[in-house]
Amino acid sequence: MKKVVFSIIVLFLININFAFADIYSEDNLYGQPVTNITHITIYNLNSSDFWDSLNTPSDIDGSLYNWINFWNRSGTNVFLHHLGDNVGIGTASPNDYLHILTTNTGNQDMLSLEAAYEAEHLGPALKFIRAGSVLARIRGIEEGGWDGGLTFEVFEVNGGSIGRDGATTEAMRIDQYGNVGIGTASPNYPLTFAASTGSKINLFAGQNWGMGIQAQLIQFITHSSAGDFTFGYGISDALTRIMTIEGTGNVGIGTVSPTHELNVVGDLNVTGTIINDAIYAQLSDLNDQTFASADVGQAINLTTTDEINGLSVSESNVTISIAGVYSIFAQPQVTAGAGDAGNFHMWLEKYNTTQWLNVSNSNVELTLDSLDEDVIPLIVVIKLNANEKIRVMGSVSDTGIKLDTQDPATEPTIPSIIFTMYRVGN
Fold this sequence. Notes:
By secondary structure, the chain is mainly β. The chain has one helix at residues 2-16, and strands at residues 20-24, 39-43, 50-52, 71-73, 76-80, 87-89, 98-100, 125-130, 133-144, 147-154, 169-174, 180-182, 191-193, 198-202, 210-214, 217-221, 229-235, 238-245, 251-253, 262-264, 280-285, 298-299, 304-309, 311-314, 317-320, 324-336, 342-351, 356-358, 364-368, 373-375, 378-384, 389-396, 401-403, 417-425. The radius of gyration is 47 Å and the shape is rod-shaped.
C-alpha cells in the first residue's frame, strides 16, 4: 500500500510541475526514517501555492511558510532557514547563504569537489559569477602522478560579458611542492614570476619602490633620487643600518649619510690592488711661441697631448667632464733675445658658459735680462664644474721675450711649455 501511495504522489508531482515533496510522520517529525505516512506537504518552488494533506501551514513550527525548513539524511541535518534563504549543514541557524558546522575538533574536511580524471593540469573548480558573467575560478588540478596543485584563474574583458561558462585564464599557481608561480605554470622556486622583463615587485602602492628585471640586469628601484637603499639588522621600524646606497649613487659603510662615492667610517683593509681610474691630462707644445703685442694677454698653445683621461682638449682649451677639485701645474721655458729684457706673466682663465674670466690669485711673474732663459712654475688648486673650460694665458712687456723649444742632441725635446692637471677630490 505504501508503494502505491508513494507512486501516486510522484506522478502527481510530475504532472503539476511541483519541485519538492515533504513526507513525514506526525509522531516522529525531525530525525528518523518515516514508518507511518500521516502527513504530506507539497511545495511549489515557482509560486506561493502549497498543498497540505492534513493540516494548515502553521502545523510544524507555528509560523506560516511555503518552503521546506528541514531535511533529514543519514543523521546529518540540512536546514533551510524559515526567515530567509540561508542553508545550514549541521546548524539550524545559518549565518550565510551556506553555513557548514561541525562539532568535531582538529583538521576536518568540510567540503569536497570531485570530478572524473581527464588529463594533467585539469580539475574541478569554484566559479565566481557577477551579473551572469564569470569573473574567476579557483581550481584543484593534478600536476601529474597524483600530485595536486591549485590554480587561480581570472578574466579581463574590459566591459563585456563572457557568460556563466566563459573561459578564464590562469594567473597564479601553487604547485605540489608549495611553489607559487605568478604568470607561469612551472614555478621552480618558492616564488617565481613570468619569463618577461619589467617591474616585478612593488612595495608601496602609487610609487615605484621595488624590483624589476631587464635583459641581463636585475633592478632595485626607488621612487626618486631622494630614496636610499640600505642593509641592516633588526626590524623595519628600528633598523640598525650598516650600509647605505643613496639614490645619488654615494655608498656609505658605517654612515647613513655618505658625502663621497665611497664613504667608509672605520678601518679599511684592502688585500688586492686599488685601481685608481683617475682624471688627468698632460699637455705640451713643441713649437716656439711669440707674443704679437706687449702687455696684451694671449692664450698659450697646448697642441700636443701626452696623456689624458676623463678630460678633453680643443684649441688649447681643456674641458672638464666631471666636477671636482683639480690641481694644475704649468711650466713654460721662457727666453729673452739679445737686447731684450722685461717681464713675463702667466695665469689661468675659466669659461663659465658665457665668457672667459681670470682665475683669481693665479698670476705669476718672471723677470728676464737680455739673453736670459728660465722656467717659472704656475701651481693652482681650483674647484671646477662639469663642462667648464680652462686655458693658460701669458703676456710680455717686451715682444723679444718668447717661449722657447729646444732639441738637445742626446736628450728628449724641451717643450715650450708643459701643462699637467688632475682631479684630487670632489
